[in-house]
Amino acid sequence: MDRTRAWYERFARQEAAGRSPLYVAWAEGVAADDEVLALLGELPPEKRQPNLLFACARWCGAADGMRAASPVDADVGATSYAAFREFVLSNWSRVSGEMRMRSTQTNEPGRTASILALLAQIDAAEGPLALIEVGASAGLCLYPDRYSFRFTRAGAIPSLDADPSAQEFDPDDGVWRLDPQEGPSSVVLETAVTESAGVNEAALGPAERDEHTQDVSELGARAGRDAAQDSAQAVRVRCALPSRMPRIAWRAGIDLAPIDVRDAEDIRWFLTLLWPEETERRSRIEAALEIVRRNPPLLVAGDAVDDLAALVARAPAGTTPVVVTAGVLAYLSPARREEFAREVRRLGVRWISNEGERVLPAVAERLAVIEGTEAAASEPGRFIVALDGEPVAVAGPHGQWLRFV
Question: For the purposes of burial, counting CB atoms within 10 Å of the CB of 90, is it exposed (0-12), middle (13-18) or buried (19 or more)?
């Protein structure tokens, strides 16, 4: 019970705060409610997560209570939880049944902004990509070449100033623009690029101080290598904003229960997973769904570890397979994550991970060597973007900000 309580407290404090007053009220209420916590304790540990409880309750008919979830009125927030609590207790059989059957599958296209630079540089170095996402849900993150990107200046960003003659960069407003070849997309993703925290030179070995960066194009031979486990010889990957879209020749995803963008019930569940107050995000995702419906990707039902090889084998000849994980490995046990990393190395594909800081400890340790530990404390909830285990950037969970390391 204590671990579940801490989970809901952390969710309210670190994830829902500033984004969903309703979910803050619900999460704080659950954390203080021994009766509801006891019911959650009847479920497998991975099924007790806040997002899943809240979405399944809403799926079963729990009112959003939007007007009651004022961020400045604690009493009204408590009333909102009281209504939620009554619904959950009265309908626990239905709610828990949905929780056992379902999983969170929110697919945030904004995360493509965090990995776009890596995709473009791998394409430039190794040819057109066969993009494969693990935990693909509806496949929205398989279409970065169909979205428009706006990288905004946040301070003096060298990567934004590197080529002032480039048509993508507008020096008047400090925005780096990148659109699909056919023109601006109905999905426009805005990302604030922040200043680098700098390299912790004192912590790097002599060889690393002499040359601690390489361009992605120079790292083809490192495919499948666990750089984070070999930090004595590892070099830091240098990355910058792309000047053109990556060429994606083939796209596919694997998920335990893929979302069919053409199925009305699948999409109703998919949209229920969105947080109630995030109307702008909902509009963005609905626009992305329309793009995917025009040319749905190959999505297969399968396990991230056991079934990945079969999907990689389907990549067309002449393409570079790039496996992407974005906010999905947290749902695997630590042992299973290690098995996944070993499988990716065995397959010899490029692996872009965009995961929470605590999900891949070896990558986090390598990042701490590069930049020290102070940055992590100042960027709570951040994701680490890495190529083949080597950290490249840190980012907001939904790609709302990006900082190269």
Answer: exposed
Phi-psi group of 37: left, alpha or beta (phi > 0 → left; psi -120 to 50 → alpha; rest → beta) = alpha
* Strand ranges for 294-346 from DSSP E: 298-301, 320-326
pLDDT by residue, tens only, the chain of 405 residues: 889 999 999 999 988 888 899 999 999 999 999 999 999 999 999 899 999 999 999 999 998 755 443 443 434 444 589 999 999 999 999 999 999 999 888 789 999 999 999 999 999 999 899 999 999 999 999 999 999 999 997 654 444 444 443 446 565 566 889 999 999 999 999 999 987 644 443 333 434 433 334 555 554 434 444 443 343 344 556 778 898 999 999 999 999 999 999 999 999 999 999 999 988 889 999 999 999 999 999 999 999 999 999 999 999 999 999 999 999 999 899 999 999 999 999 999 999 999 998 899 999 999 998 887 666 667 878 999 999 999 999 999 999 999 998
Supply the pTM of this predicted model. 0.81
Tracing tokens 């409880």 back to the chain, one arrives at 53
- What is the rounded CA–CA span in Å between residue 382 and residue 376? 8
Could you tell me where the beta strands, DSSP code E, fall in 98-195? 129-134, 148-153, 169-170, 175-178, 188-193
Q: Dihedral of CA 22/25/28/33: which sign? A: negative
